[in-house]
């Protein structure tokens, strides 16, 4: 809800007393206030509650970023009119509840809020997807309802509801303008809706009933909103939509044109970062180059949300998702290859009606293959009046077990360990759930927790800073802020050099997906306690600087030793172990499924590239045909294999 952030100026107040306003007081916090005294203070308070545009309003929001943007627009209009926004519902004269209909728990949460309001005799205006998609729901029988395209009429709805009317404003109309006043829940983050509705017909989706068909804003309106937000001092701009990839198809435009226009207005100093919104696979297949180009821009986070929902093409067809598993993988593979360090978030529905055990295995294998850093897991919920509501459901216990199994898998890998020891730039926009730590995000939108306190909040909030990552957990990292500018510059220089080196290696041949699938890491320092850690399953997180000399680097020697060792001594490797992913902790080159022809071809091409760069010394050190050279290389390769197996947590 509102309470913090910037809002518009007061544009008008109604100072006269409306005829339907009760003279003897107003229901407030469950108590009926009456004017039983002649005390002037009490009279002033009573008059205050009877004058439109002066009451306290509590705004409660459920659901997606689009819903939060709608609430910010409504809060802005209410505050501009003169209403006081409060985060404390007990202080409010009226509650505005912006609802989500995507699944049962979100609507159940709405029901709880409405029951509390009824108990306390607080008038309510219910907005959002629930009243728009299911206005006959029994919980909505006695409250005012405001549709998703009517948010620019929130002042009227509140005013009439405070008079005692039940307001119904649910008719569909043109999109609300983007130049409405706004109170941001985070004053440093601007959420811009690109459109409303979508072109899909998903069998489980209730949101379609509320948001309807695709309706896109003109590019000029979106750019105007972005410019205004930048002028008002935001440091992040989030794009919000039910399907970003479908943007503009109804108005003769597309996301490629939009992204190009948006990055052109971002400040050149990276003081404002852009975050792309959620997009479904079908409509971005034609725009993958444009999306990749946008995320490579220095002022655009390398983060995107692509819900897959299932790893089975059969289940996807039952859902009417309009793509196959292979097409989803095509999207991921392209972005992983063309956007360095990209973070892809996705969604999974567990136990969709008719989903068999083998089809569920396909979903598990998809997550195992890509190890997405962010996986939003949901059990299937049958939403009324959707096609899936009438489908035969999977046993409830089975659904729960699948949800637990997937949760266990996603919590078993640690995508941010690769950041430990690295120096990088972060953008700081929030305070963590502990109420103390600052929250920053890297270019890849990984969450970095920093030391808090009043001094650091004053100094760093809403700015960027260079940090050194100290430790990582499954969902975030902890870092220290680098105060010394020269030290920060050295860290960035090292990172840039690293990026150039991987670009050089990739140019040697087909190295699809090396950038992200296998990570970018600096070479580990020698660890004399390696033997003590064998079997511990812990990763060696120490890092060192790259050797910039024009000689063959040790990581290449080790890689060639691994290849030579496997080639010459393959009988010593059980097949099921040898085919496991072999990952260099340097991150420069990775061999996956060594016995696959594509990977062997890639290794040969990389070898040729290194030989061109390092001459005979590279050949001698790595792939010398002499038996005396191959055997030591084989031993070194086997040692490296075992070491890196521990480093990446492979059994």
Describe the structure.
Helix 19 (597-614) crosses helix 20 (616-623). The longest helix is centred in the C-terminal third of the chain and has 22 residues, at 485-506. Strand 22 (582-583) and strand 23 form a beta hairpin. The chain contains 21 helices and 23 strands. The strands form seven sheets. A six-stranded parallel sheet has the order 4-3-5-6-7-8, sandwiched between helices. Strands 17-18-19-21-20 form a five-stranded mixed barrel. The chain is of the alpha/beta class and 651 residues long. The model is unreliable at 1-48, 493-557, 564-600, 616-630 and 644-651 (pLDDT under 50). It is 38% helix and 15% strand. The chain is globular and about 60 Å long.
Which value, in Å, is the CA radius of gyration? 29 Å
Q: Which strand-content bin applies to the residues?
A: 5-15%
* Largest sheet composition: 6 strands, parallel
Structural class: alpha/beta
Which outline best applies?
globular
**Helical coverage, percent range:** 25-40%
Strand order of the largest sheet: 4-3-5-6-7-8
N-to-C terminal Cα separation, in Å?
48 Å
Task: From the structure above, extract its key features.
651 residues; 21 helices; six-stranded parallel beta sheet; alpha/beta; five-stranded mixed β-barrel; 23 strands; disordered C terminus; disordered N terminus; globular
Short structural description:
This protein has 651 residues and is an alpha/beta fold. The chain has 21 helices and 23 strands.
């Amino acid at each position: 809800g509102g309470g913090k952030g910037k809002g518009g100026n007061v544009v008008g107040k109604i100072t006269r007393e409306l005829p339907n306003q009760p003279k003897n007081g107003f229901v407030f916090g469950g108590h009926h206030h009456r004017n039983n005294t002649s005390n002037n203070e009490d009279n002033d308070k009573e008059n205050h509650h009877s004058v439109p545009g002066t009451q306290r309003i509590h705004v409660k929001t459920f659901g997606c970023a689009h819903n939060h943007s709608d609430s910010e627009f409504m809060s802005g209009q209410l505050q501009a009119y003169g209403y006081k926004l409060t985060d404390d519902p007990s202080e409010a004269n009226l509650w505005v509840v912006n609802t989500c209909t995507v699944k049962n728990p979100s609507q159940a949460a709405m029901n709880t809020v409405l029951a509390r309001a009824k108990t306390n005799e607080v008038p309510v205006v219910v907005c959002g997807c629930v009243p728009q998609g299911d206005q006959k729901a029994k919980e909505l029988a006695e409250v005012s309802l405001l549709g998703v395209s009517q948010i620019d009429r929130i002042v009227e709805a509140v005013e009439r509801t405070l008079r005692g009317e039940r307001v119904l404003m649910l008719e569909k109309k043109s999109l609300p303008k983007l130049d409405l006043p706004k109170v941001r829940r985070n004053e440093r983050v601007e959420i811009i809706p690109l459109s409303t509705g979508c072109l899909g017909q998903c069998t489980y989706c209730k949101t379609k009933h509320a948001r309807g068909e695709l309706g896109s804003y003109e590019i000029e309106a979106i750019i105007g909103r972005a410019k205004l937000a930048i002028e008002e001092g935001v440091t992040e701009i989030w794009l919000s939509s039910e399907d970003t990839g479908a943007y503009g198809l109804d108005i003769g435009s597309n996301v490629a044109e939009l992204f190009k226009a948006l990055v052109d207005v971002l400040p050149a100093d990276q003081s404002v970062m852009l975050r792309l919104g959620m997009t479904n696979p079908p409509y971005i297949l034609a725009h993958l180059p444009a999306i990749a180009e946008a995320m490579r821009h220095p002022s655009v986070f390398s983060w995107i949300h692509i819900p897959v929902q299932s790893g089975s093409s059969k289940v996807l067809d039952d859902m009417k998702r309009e793509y196959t598993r292979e097409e989803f993988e095509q999207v991921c593979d392209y972005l992983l290859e063309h956007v360095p360090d990209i973070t892809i978030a996705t969604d999974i529905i567990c136990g969709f009606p008719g989903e068999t055990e083998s089809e569920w295995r396909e979903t598990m294998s998809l997550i195992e293959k890509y190890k997405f850093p962010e996986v939003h897991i949901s059990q299937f919920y049958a939403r009324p009046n959707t096609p899936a509501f009438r489908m035969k459901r999977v046993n409830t216990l089975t659904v729960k077990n699948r949800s637990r199994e997937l949760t266990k898998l996603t919590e078993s890998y640690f995508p941010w360990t690769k950041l430990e020891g690295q120096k990088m730039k972060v953008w700081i926009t929030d305070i963590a759930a502990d109420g103390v730590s600052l929250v920053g995000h890297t270019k890849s939108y990984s969450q970095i927790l920093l030391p808090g306190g009043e001094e650091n909040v004053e100094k760093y909030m809403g700015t960027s800073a260079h940090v050194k990552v100290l430790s990582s957990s499954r969902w975030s990292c902890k870092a220290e802020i680098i105060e010394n500018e020269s030290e920060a510059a050295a860290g960035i220089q090292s990172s840039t050099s690293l990026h150039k080196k991987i670009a050089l290696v990739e140019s040697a041949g087909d190295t699809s997906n090396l950038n992200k699938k296998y990570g970018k890491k600096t070479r580990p320092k020698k660890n004399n306690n390696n033997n003590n850690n064998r079997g511990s399953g812990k990763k060696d997180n120490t890092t060192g600087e790259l050797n910039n000399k024009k000689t063959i680097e040790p990581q290449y020697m080790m890689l060639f030793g691994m290849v030579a060792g496997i080639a010459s001594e393959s009988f010593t490797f059980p097949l099921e172990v040898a085919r496991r992913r072999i990952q260099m902790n340097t991150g420069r080159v990775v061999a996956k499924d060594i016995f696959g022809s594509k990977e062997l071809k890639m290794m040969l091409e990389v070898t040729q590239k290194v030989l061109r760069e390092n001459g005979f010394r590279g050949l001698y050190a790595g792939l010398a045909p002499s038996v005396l050279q191959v055997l030591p290389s084989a031993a070194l390769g086997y040692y490296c294999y075992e070491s890196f197996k521990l480093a990446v947590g492979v059994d």
